[in-house]
């Protein structure tokens, strides 16, 4: 090996080129680079060992060329980035020291040099699984919490529909709504041709029996989304937690109740289309007095400690359960990320880089 | 004549059949019926002489078959209904007496028997033109007031775009916004091939010099709505007062600023289409954190006196001006109503049935 014993091999997930349409595993390349485990003298940077990486739908926007300040493009030829849990190996920053556990934006690689660590959150509670900080206790958890309590303005007894309900955010929104005394229905598209038992029963099992939803359906098995929603919501929908967009949103608009609310968190069905689908039923917004409101979780990060105070007890007391879909190793990271867009994941999709 | 001298001829505007697509003058028929000017003994009804009738876009929904409780269908073979100003001729209701002036829902005819007059508003201020109670002091005025102050949550200095800006609601929203210190741009489609001077200058003249908008454009003269909005709003739009829908909404979404608001009042471009246009740019709602909220003015009617207290002084002090497009006589009422949907009106479209 080289004379400098601190230089290690560093496996990375590289974006080859900007992506158009559905991302494929082959849009990424897993290869080894090398890295020094020491932060340069006088730098404010920290060097971390990545433990868990989060696969999130918003990452699709960063795989294409764009100039959005919140969702800037990844750099082709460099490792992709995302939220993750990491351990500090070396620090030039006064607020971080070796051994600290953190979550926040990091690289899809074994070790990352983080030049501006100010945006990272330190992890103080380790009686819960560390991987939870990629999900229920991290960005998706904050998304569910802010979206449900701040944007949806929910009331006990209301009818709530959650799309992408088995994902990181959806499973939590549904459970928060049940804790509030709402009637909750979720939909998702479950893994096809992977398990042999009927798809519908798997999904209903998970959403109803594990998460406590009142009803559930697999949208891939419904020819008519409007009919599916009318079956599940004969009284209509008060709150829709929007993850899907396009045809799903159009069907939901037909089934909203007066003064309904739509928390627009994402529209995953549209991310890989060159031209987004048209939504035709927006007149319902007018005459049903619907409030449709978009939000981005970053705006709520300053409230993180308030969020932890609310959600940690739910986990510890078993009031909220949480399902993860774990891919093992960076080699499997591209497939895990790509699977989000075909609905392959059941539960929060994450990648284990290293368990410690 | 008949022995009963109180039975008079009563000219009416009859809906022949439910309408599909663009309404035509020939969908309506003006013909004479007869009416007794006495209310039956023991009835709570009132009998009114109609003075001014209001042509409003929402009436299109009532011309088709529908089961919406707020916008129920007109009855083919019977007079259409709408907001109007009327004078009480006879009353069986304790709260109304002969000679009272009222505004509210009445028939498109010379005289109407109103069986449930509770929903009518009595007119107490007659130092302003009576016709104003079909517009600035009636339903459209309340719409502009509630939509702008309650739904838009405006702040001084914000960039405001109003479509259908020369109409009853749009001209008021723009002026309210100017009074608040906002930058206001309006668009409308002005009468084509009616006046001979260039269309663009007419409209710009009206919106800028009469109503005080900062800028204006005629959407019928723009090939590229996105480009027109970028020209008028290089910094983007904070508030959009939505009257149009479809392609206009799609172009606006591309030009909204972070945390923008869309007050969804109507979508007139869509009312005559068998299948509404698709709106493709809704992902902007998510990442720009846009709130799009529909509202219906009926919900604000209980605040009518508060509204009058705010708006009457604006009129008396000349802080708000108001332009009407007046059709004379019930014979011209069908053309006036139909003209709304091709953008023929400049100013609030109304019909004079009788001036006293």
Task: Describe, in plain words, how this protein is organized in 3D.
Chains A, B: Pfam families: ADH_N_2, ADH_zinc_N. Chains A, B: Residues 168-308 form the Alcohol dehydrogenase-like C-terminal domain. The structure is a homodimer of 356-residue chains. With 356 residues, chain A is of the alpha/beta class. Chain A folds into two domains: 7-135 and 323-352, Medium-chain alcohol dehydrogenases, catalytic domain (Quinone Oxidoreductase, Chain A, domain 1), CATH 3.90.180.10; 139-298, Rossmann fold. Helices cover 24% and strands 26% of the residues of chain A. In chain A, helix 7 links the parallel strand 12 and strand 13 (291-294). The interface between A and B is medium-sized, with 33 and 33 residues. Strand 13 of chain A pairs antiparallel with strand 13 of chain B, so a sheet runs across the interface.
Biggest sheet character of chain A? 7 strands, mixed
User: Could you state the order of secondary-structure elements of chain A as H and E?
Assistant: EEEHEEEEHEHEHEHEHEHEHEHE
User: Helix fraction of chain A?
Assistant: 10-25%
CATH topology of the largest domain in chain A: Rossmann fold
Global shape of chain A: globular
CATH architectural category of the largest domain in chain A: 3-Layer(aba) Sandwich
Estimated structural class of chain A: alpha/beta
How many domains would you count in the coordinates of chain A? 2
> In CATH's first tier, which class of the largest domain in chain A applies?
Alpha Beta
CATH superfamily of the largest domain in chain A: NAD(P)-binding Rossmann-like Domain
Return the average pLDDT of chain A rounded to an integer. 93
| Oligomeric state of shown chains | homodimer
Strand content of chain A: 25-35%
Tally of separate helices of chain A: 9
* Main interface by residue count: A-B, 33 and 33 residues
Number of strands of chain A: 15
GO molecular function, one term (chains A, B): 2-alkenal reductase [NAD(P)H] activity
Protein name (chains A, B): Enoyl reductase (ER) domain-containing protein
Pfam families (chains A, B): ADH_N_2, ADH_zinc_N
Domain Oxidoreductase N-terminal (chains A, B): 11-122
């Amino acid at each position: 090996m080289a004379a400098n014993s601190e230089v290690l091999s560093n496996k990375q997930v590289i974006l080859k080129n900007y992506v158009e349409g559905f991302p494929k595993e082959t849009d990424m390349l897993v290869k080894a680079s090398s890295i020094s485990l020491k932060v340069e003298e006088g730098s404010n940077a920290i060097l971390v060992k990545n433990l868990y990486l989060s696969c999130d739908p918003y990452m699709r926007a960063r795989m294409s060329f764009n100039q959005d300040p919140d969702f800037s493009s990844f750099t082709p030829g460099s490792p992709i980035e995302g939220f993750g849990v990491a351990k500090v190996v070396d620090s030039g920053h006064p607020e971080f020291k070796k051994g600290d556990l953190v979550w926040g934006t990091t690289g899809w690689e074994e070790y990352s040099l983080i030049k501006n660590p100010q945006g990272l959150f330190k992890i103080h509670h380790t009686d819960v699984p560390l991987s939870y900080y990629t999900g229920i206790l991290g960005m998706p958890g904050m998304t569910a919490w802010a979206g449900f309590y701040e944007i949806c303005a929910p009331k006990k007894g209301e009818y709530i529909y959650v799309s992408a309900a088995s994902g990181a955010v959806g499973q939590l929104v549904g459970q928060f709504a049940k804790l509030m005394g709402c009637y909750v229905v979720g939909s998702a598209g479950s893994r096809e041709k992977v398990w042999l038992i009927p798809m519908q029963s798997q999904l209903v099992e998970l959403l109803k029996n594990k998460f406590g939803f009142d009803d559930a359906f697999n949208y891939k098995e419904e020819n008519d989304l409007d009919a599916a929603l009318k079956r599940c919501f004969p009284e209509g929908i008060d709150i829709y937690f929007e993850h899907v967009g396009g045809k799903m949103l159009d069907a939901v608009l037909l089934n909203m109740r007066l003064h309904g609310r739509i928390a627009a968190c994402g529209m995953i069905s549209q991310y890989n289309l060159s031209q987004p689908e048209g939504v035709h039923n927006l007149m319902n917004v007018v005459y049903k007095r619907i409030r449709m409101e978009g939000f981005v979780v970053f705006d709520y990060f300053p409230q993180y400690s308030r969020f932890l105070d609310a959600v940690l007890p739910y986990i510890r007391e078993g009031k909220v359960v949480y399902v993860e879909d774990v891919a093992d190793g960076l080699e499997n990271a591209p497939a895990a990320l790509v699977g989000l867009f075909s609905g392959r994941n059941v539960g929060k999709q994450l990648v284990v880089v290293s368990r410690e």
